[in-house]
Each structure stands twice: as C-alpha cells, then as structure tokens.
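Sample 1 of the test manifest.
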Amino acid sequence: MENESKFLRFVAGHPHAHVPFYARPAGSRRDFFRVLGTGVAGSFLASAPAQAQIVKGAAVRPRNTAKNAIFILLAGAPSHIDTFDLKMTDGITPTAFAPSTIKGVAWNTGVFPKLAASFDDIALVRSARAWAAQHTLSQTWVQIGRNPAAVLGDIAPNIGAIVSVEKKPERTSGQIFPTFLALNSDGAVGAGYLPASYEPFKFAASQNGLPNTTNADGAARLEAKYSLLQGLDGPLRAQSPYGDPMNDFSAFYQSARGLMYNAAVDKAFKFTAAESARYGTTSFGNALLTAKQVLEANMGTRYIQVTLGGWDMHNNIYATQAGQTSIFSLGKVVDDALSTLLADMKGNGQLNETLVVMMGEFGRTVGPLSATAGRDHFLQQFVFFAGGGVKGGRAIGITDATGARTKEFGWSAARDVRVEDVEATIYSALGINWTNIRYDDPFGRGFEYVPFANDGLYQPIDELWT
Amino acid sequence: MKRNVGGFLALAGIALSGVAGWAQTAEPEEPANADHAECTFFGPKRAQFLEAALGAARRPRRSFSQETEEIVGRLGGNRGNDTRQFVPGGSRTYINQQSAGTANVVDRHIFGVLQSRGIEPAPRSTDYEFMRRVSLDLTGRVPRPERVTAFVSDSDADKRSKYVDELLQSPEWVDKWTMFFGDLFRNTDQIRATNTVRRAEGREAFSAWIRQSLLTGKPYNKMAYELIAAEGTNSWTQGELNWQIGNRTTGGPAQDNFDQMAASTMETFLGVSHFNCVMCHNGRGHVDSLSLWGKNTSRLQAYGFAAFFAQTTMTQQPRDQRPDPNIYYWSLANVRTGGYSLNTTTGNRPPRTPIGSTRTVAPDYPFGDGATANAGETPRAAAARLVTSDFQFARAAVNYLWRELMVRGLVEPVNQMDPERLDPDNPPPSPWTLQPSNAALLRDLAQEFIDGGYNIRALMRRIVTSDAYQLSARYPGQWNPDWEGLHARRLVKRLWAEEVYDAIVQTSNLPAPITMTVTTRIANGAAAETRVVPWAMQTTSPSSRGGATAFLNAFYPGDREDTDRRRDGSDQQALTLMNNALVMNRTRSSTSAGQDSLLKKNINKTDRELIETLYLTVLSRLPDESERAAAGKALTAGNRQQAAENLLWALFNKVDFFFNY
C-alpha cells in the first residue's frame, strides 16, 4: 500500500505532466502541419510519417505482439462484482449466477456461460480503479487516457487517433479502409488537436455494410453522373485557381469511390442474418462481427472502438423480466457476441494479432442493493483483456471479500491499475512507444501519449504477457 | 499622393517600352525628389517595385491574356453584354488607388502592408463571387437566383454595401450567428467532461438568449457582462445563467469551479486560453515559448482573478412538476462571504497551499494594477466590468469574428493571444515579436469596435465592405503560402455542415425539416417534447438533430465540448455528398413530392435555360462555355429527366458548391 499512497500523493500534486521548454526539441506546430496538413488546407494527404522531432520518447521496448486492437466501452459502468469480479453475497446475489471457479478464478456462469469456454484466452484485471465516478467525465477519461477536466483534456485525441497517427504511415496502397473505426459509438471522442484525417470513421454496424457506399440510382448511372461531375469540376479540382483545399477533394472523391461498389468493402462490412445470429442478433453483436471481418480483411484498419451502453443499473439490477435492462439481459448480449468473436478469431488465428480490451468507465457499489434494487456509482472496476499476445486463463489482482478495494495488486507497480496504465498497455501491445511526446500541440508544451509515462508514473501491465 | 501614383505609372510605362535598357542597368537610380522619401513607390523600396513591374512586363503577353481569359471563362465571364465587373490581375495599383487612402481601417492596414512588402493582391471579386461569399458568410445561406440576377445587373455603384445591409438585417443573419455564438459559448445539453447537465431546457433557454441578444443588437460588451455576472434562480427560464453553469467542475473543491470560471472568462472573452495553465503553476518554465505575458505571470496572480468568482454558488433545483431527483435546473447566486482559500489537497488541480502568510487571496484583476470590486459591487460583477472594459476584450472579439469572416485570425490560434505582444505602439523586447499578422489593424479595428458601441453588425459591416474582403480567391500570379496571413487573396473555406445541408434544401426547394428534442424525457412521465425547424442553422445544439445527424456530422460540426468545428475535408464527406439520402431524394424528380421543386419546375425549359437555371440556383453563377457544352451534351443523350437529375447531382458534388470561395 506504500506505493499506492506515494502514487496518489504525486498525482494529487500533478494533474498533468510538465515538460519544460528547454527539454523540447526544436520544431514547431507549423512544421508539424507542414507535414501532416492543416485544418484549412485539408489533411487527407497526411500520411507522411511523423518526423523525429515531433515525437520523442524514452528508450522503452514495446511488446509489439498485436497488430490491431478492439476497444469495447461498456458505457454506464457495469457492476464489477456481478460480472468479471464476481462476489457472492448471501441473500442478495441471484442463484441464477450459478457461480463456478475456472482455474481458480470465480466466474459468473449464469450470465457468461459461453465466454467461459474462451477463458484460456481471457485475462481479467481486478485491481483496477477509476479516478472519478461520473459517467461522461469517466467515459471521456477512458477514451483519452487522461483527466478530461485538466488543462490539456479538451484537446486530447482518442487513443485510437494516436494509434492512427502511428500506424497510418504503414498503410500499403491497397489498404483503403479507415485506420480508426468507431462502431455504434456516436459520442466517441475524436482526434482532438490532431488533423481531421485521424478522426474516427463513425457508423452503426448493419447488414447493409458501410453507409453511403452504394448509390440509390445504381452503379451504372453513378458512372454517368461521376463522369459528368469530372467533366464539369475537373478544372477546379486539379491545380485549382482557388488553391489546395479544393484540390484535396479530388483525392477524397477517389478514395471514397474506392470504397464504393467494392467487393472487398462489402465482404468486410456486410453480413448475413445467419452470421448476425451467431453473434446474438444485436447491434453490439453486429459491431463485433463487423470488427472481426474488417480486421480479417487486412485493409488498413488498426483500431476499432465499440460502445455498448445501458449499464447504469441504479434500479432492478437483477431483473429477469423480458424487456428489462439488467445484468442478465445485457450480460447475455455481451456473452453471445464476445464469445463468438473470441472463438472465431481463435479459429482463424486472428486472435493472436488482435488485442481485445473491454471495460466500463467505473464500477458499482458493493454489498446489499440500494433502495431501488440497484447499485450506484463506485470506483473499483474490472478490465477485460484477450488476444494480442496476452496470456489468458487468469486474473490479475484480487479484491477484498466485498469487492470494494484491491487486496492484492498483482502487478509490478504495486498499486491499482488506472486507465492510463490500460492506455500504455494498448500502445505497448501495438508496438507504440507509450512514452512518446509530440511537440505539436497548440500549447507547444508537448503532448504525452500517456501522461507521466516518461517519469515512469504509469506503465503497461507487463504481467499480462508473462 | 495622386501625383506620385501617376508618376509611377509613367515610370512603368517607360519600363514597358524599354525592357532591355532597364534590364542592363545594374541599380536604378534613386529619384532625387525628397517628397518621395516616405513613399513605397519612390522611396527606398522602389527597386523592388520596379523589379516586379519589369517581371510582369517580361511575361509573354500571350500567356498573360490566356491566363486571364481562362479564369474569366471558368467563371462564366467575358461575354459581350456581361455586366459583371472583372479586374484582371496584374494591375497592381487599382486597389491601392481605391483603398490606400480610404477611411476604411481594414484596407488602410491590409494594403499598407502589401504595398510595403511589394506583394500584389488578388484581383477584385466578381459580383457573382462576392454575392455568394457574403451571403454565406453573413447568413449561412446561398442567395436566391432571382436576387443574384438582380444584383449583377444593378448598376448602382454602392450595391455591394447595400446588399450587406440587407443581409445584416435578415432573420438568417440571426440564425447563423446564434450558431456561431452557441459554439463560442459552448451551449450544449451537458458537458461530458465534467458531467454537468443543463438539459434540453437549459440549452434552449441559452440559445434563445443568444438569439434575442443578436436580434435586438445588444452590444457585445453587454452580452459578455450578462454572462459573466449572471445571477438567478432558474437556468431553464434565464438563458444567461447557462454560460457559468457550464464552468462547473466535478471531482474537486469549490476552488476548481472558481478556476474554471476564471479560465473560461479569459479564453472566451479575452482570448487568453493559456491562463488555464497559470491556474495550476507559475508561467515560467511552462509557457515560456508561448507567451511573454504567461511567462511573467504567477499562479498567485491567477488566483487573484479566480478570487472574483469565489462568492459564486451553483445549486441544483428540483423541478416541482417532475419529482425526479435526476431532473433539475440550476440556480446561480452570489453569497456575501467567502474568499479564495489556499487550502486544498485534492481535486483537478495541484494543491493550493498558503504562500507566505497569504491564506486567502483577494480579487485582483491581472491586467488592472490592483483593480478590484467597487463598494456595493459583487466581486463577479466587478470581474464582468473589468473584463468588458478592457481593451483586450475588444481585441479578442475582433479576432474571433475576423477569423470567421476572413478564414484566418489576425492572431492564430484565436484563443491564444499573448497580451504583451499585441500592441504595435509598445512592441515586446527582442527576441519576441508582435503576435498579430497585422497589429495596427487589430488595434484600430478594436478601437473602432469600442467607439461604435460594441456593435457586432457594424464590425461585420466594416470587414465585409472592405476591399480586402472583396479580393478574389483566384490568384493569377505565383502564390506564396506565407502571404495567407496578409490576406493578399481570399482564402477559401468548406461550408459549415449546416450550410451544406441548408443549401441543398433551399436550392432543390424540397424541405427536410429537423426535429429537435426540447424538453427532458423522464422515466415515468410524459414523452419529451419536440420542435421542428426547417433549417439546420436553426437547430440549437449539435446533439439534437434527429435524422439529420449523420449527414451533418460528416462535415465536422464539432460538439461544443472537446471537439471544435472543423473545415477539413474527408472521404466520408465525399461518400455523403454522392450517396446520402438527403442528396439523392433531392436529385430525383420521381421521388420528389413537391411540384415546386427545382427539377419539376424547370424540366420543360430548353436545355440552355435549364442549365442556366440549375447553375444560377445551385452555384449562384452562370455556366461557362465548356460547362454549357458538357451539360448540354449530357442532357441530349438518353432520358432527359434522368440527365437533368444527373446534372443537379453533379452540381451538388462540385467543389464550388460546398466551398465558400
């Protein structure tokens, strides 16, 4: 506990990291945008690799065991003790949870019967703790890996946008899918201060595939329209007298056309009712199915965020009636979809190169239920990992009898796992130096991928690999 | 002055007729006439100007005229009875004759700099260009075709400024700038980063307050004062309370709230966002390379500003009719006691600990030599008074509005003004340089804004009636990107999301109303109430746009929280314009219900008339010859109705449709 209290004292004194100006390399925001393209000038052609003076990190060795990542946000904050840190309380916990123990780890077989079969690939972190118990604040926190209320919070990019900055230069010419997809995540945090080409491509997964990739008048007529457009607009799109922002659109249209009537796009983004049924015929299942297919296509997508809301169970958390949102109903949605995802990816080898991370923005109160038969906001939480080189079949960290606090941290930092550590873990798995600092932020002070990682405050959960 | 200009032209004439002779002269002699000492044409800069003039003269005349013709042709000009004005590039003095000595403060400074640096401005915009540009800039809407025709054929020399006045008085002006100030004041249902909830009711009230303020021409300093000093019991009925409510912070002590109020006031009204940095630690060692002011500012000074807000309380008020504890509005009050105490150990900012013997910080305006509250004035009202009477307040407002109209701020980024590097009469010590691209312009425009009573319409009028605003986006010569900040040409910008949507709806003449949720839905109560608006620009928040959301979000409208509005393009925008139902349903006459739709109304016209009508309606200009030919060919091949639909579709996908140029 000594590390934990030292850590907390430090964090209290330092809401965000400080990089003194003299420690910064030369290179301005302007230089950066000369490379990556500016807001005004458009930014599609922004795939040049980041320059050395833009990014500077300590000599760490990222694990680099995963090519892609799927990040699942269980919005609303699931009860940890009713899901992946199961605690049985006499007279309170439903017997339908049918608790069992797999390899010494307590498991809610009643709610997650199918996932149990993938347990060998699942690593649960139970010594995890959120910083705040307010939904939107904490949801933003887990997506950007830092305090949104701190000074740099409102310019911070989504973790996926940073992955996109790092991985976009690796794209080959045939890889035409968006680097960063956000499925069923309308409210996902965007690219922050980074150029718009790192914004998440947001859409709701559906059998119809990628939206707007077919024309209601049909492919043949689209050809006629498009060639008319080229005839009329060509002079304004190539060496436009109005400058580059218009020229950039010839590339956007080319790229968009590449996504249309493209068998590879349809194969990756469309699915049949039967396939959807395997994932539970839910919008969440459709998102995971799409994620699996898109990554399988290997067409340039590297980071996928999926959101499943509804976990804010202040009332009737154990309800069993049809149509009522509860641990049972929402748990089944997760169990159906995620178990199929893990099994499918295991089957074709995708799981080895795809890190799956699933968490809520915090946990819920432990012990007896509230007056409205629910559980309220609470800091203790779980983080679910699978694939991407992570060793499964275990839990890291142990909580006390009720699940209120961590009893054993279970990892080398000897303190609670924070979302900043999860962020560092994702970067490490993907081969990204999590201590990198970009000197292109609007304050010119250095934007750290993971705050204080250079000072060793936050770090990847290396125990996941050992 | 006139004599000098004439002299220059005469000299240029010599140059044109004797190129070889001049070129062999190593250094042109300085004119002996002492009158010319201060003149850029005949003073020390003369050589530079002569060289430029010679360069233009050396350019083969053929290619020059070709270039001009090409550009004019592309915009549909150069026909016999065309009444459009078009001044070809290369005549460097035309604009200076009009503008260098005018009373328009914008032109005096913009062209003064261009002249002194020997940079040739772009030609003047055509009437078509100007009309579309200024309509979009001031009202967010493209002009109606009959208005375009009338404007172009109007021979009144003053027609541009008269049209500007017409736009400034239109209801659409109120719509667009309600959206703009909604962005600036971050009006949302909730602030996710702090979990602060205004709800739809608070958002609607705030939006109505902004709208009413603009409609009635409330001076901007009064608007700001009302937001900073707001007090009241119900944020759902008093819209102005909602700005301060948005500064509520969670997860920390009350001082975190005071700090956020101070930081937001600094950013929104004084353009100094890095004040937020100094709220946590001294500027030195942190913002040294960013801000001379910040470098010399201490955390204690920042506390001094936050202390003005330390008697503020925000309280959730249950709404009687709906006894649900999760549904509440806010009250915002000033208590008579309490100060800014240095006694925190937790929260979103570093601990606040006593500095020497100072345990409670008194209000002290950081730019005001100890300025503080007057007798009988609440500290927050004092902050509102001090901020809105600060010259920096006018500079920040001018810079925000200049950026929206001129695409680039005089200081960029607009919210990062360094108070010690703005005054051209008091420049910073070396190696610091003045921060604005044109500091004298910022100074004089801010002064004019103050003298004019902080009148937003008057400031906009000043900017858009300047010759600088009316330059073309086309630049016939070799363009240097470093000239962007000098406004040597018009910079193009992609339309706002709402502007694209409304332009498609307006020009196709097929409505696509948007349903907004305006009250809160509760678990066991009545359904939420909705309001339907015909135009995207009339929606009150990016978070409540019903079925239009997907279309609008492709164009990055921002969320007024952690994502700002952006003008970047994307693949998704191309996909949306090519295939989204909004476009498809408005380019297919078969599915178009309205008999008055653009296509149905004009389908029986001759090819020529149809093409002209579509161009004039959608692009606010006439087609050029090559466009007429291409469109005409398309119309005669196969099914005419389909061909007309295809043409309209192509126009909606043209860059000059979704750009303001």
